[in-house]
Write a structure and sequence with these properties.
205 residues, alpha/beta, Spore Coat Polysaccharide Biosynthesis Protein SpsA, Chain A, two-stranded parallel ribbon, 44% helix, 11% strand
């Protein structure tokens, strides 16, 4: 997770500079809370250098590690993978975006169950371009290629696209005001809901 001062910059035109970092943290809290409530998830590791975000997510039960590589999202995800497997070398791992405020534990469980059939598998975002979830079976490297048109990169890398019905909450990441309205329509978690009225009412500007 990026430092809150930098996170969700594309959301600022829709919600303003004050609400933007608060929403970024709320998205992450709802994502982590949903993941931890999923019976298929043993634990959640968050990679971030932001002390406020780290404290809030650790309070939910996540294990927070610093972004030691400091080289962007994919390096951070690989660092998280190494952190998990340092203690459990044969663990299956999955990377999940921190901006899934509508995430539902039951939908994540279905995705995890399906992904377990393949060495690597991923979920495409609601726009059909990016990626919100990537998994790797025990003994298989995660090889994350998130950012921009990552669906194509993950397909090219041999990962299997997960095309299950009714997993919209796993697909709906939030970068823009339109994304936020779509997530709100699905039903966001408690932390995002605290800001929902102000965010939903704010026009793009």
């Amino acid at each position: 997770m990026k430092p809150l001062a930098l996170a969700k910059s594309r959301l600022a035109p829709a919600v303003g500079p004050v609400l933007r970092p608060r929403l970024a943290l709320a998205f992450a809290r709802d994502t982590v809370a949903a993941a931890l409530s999923c019976p298929a998830v043993l634990d959640v590791v968050v990679v971030t250098d932001d002390p406020r975000a780290g404290a809030a997510l650790a309070a939910l039960g996540a294990r927070v590690v610093p972004d030691a590589p400091g080289r962007g999202l994919n390096a951070a995800l690989a660092h998280g993978e190494r952190t998990v497997r340092a203690g459990r070398p044969r663990a299956a791992v999955a990377a999940l975006n921190a901006d899934l405020p509508a995430l539902r534990a039951d939908e994540l469980a279905r995705v995890l169950d399906f992904s377990a059939k393949f060495p690597r598998a991923f979920v495409t975002d609601a726009a059909g371009i990016g990626t919100t979830f990537l998994s790797a079976a025990p003994g298989v490297k995660l090889r994350p290629a998130f950012g921009g048109p990552s669906r194509a990169r993950h397909l090219d890398s041999g990962a299997v696209e997960i095309d299950l019905p009714d997993i919209d909450s796993v697909r709906q990441d939030v970068d823009t005001g339109d994304d936020l309205r779509a997530a709100t329509a699905l039903g966001v978690g408690a932390y995002t809901a605290e800001h929902r009225s102000a965010a939903a009412a704010a026009p793009d500007r």
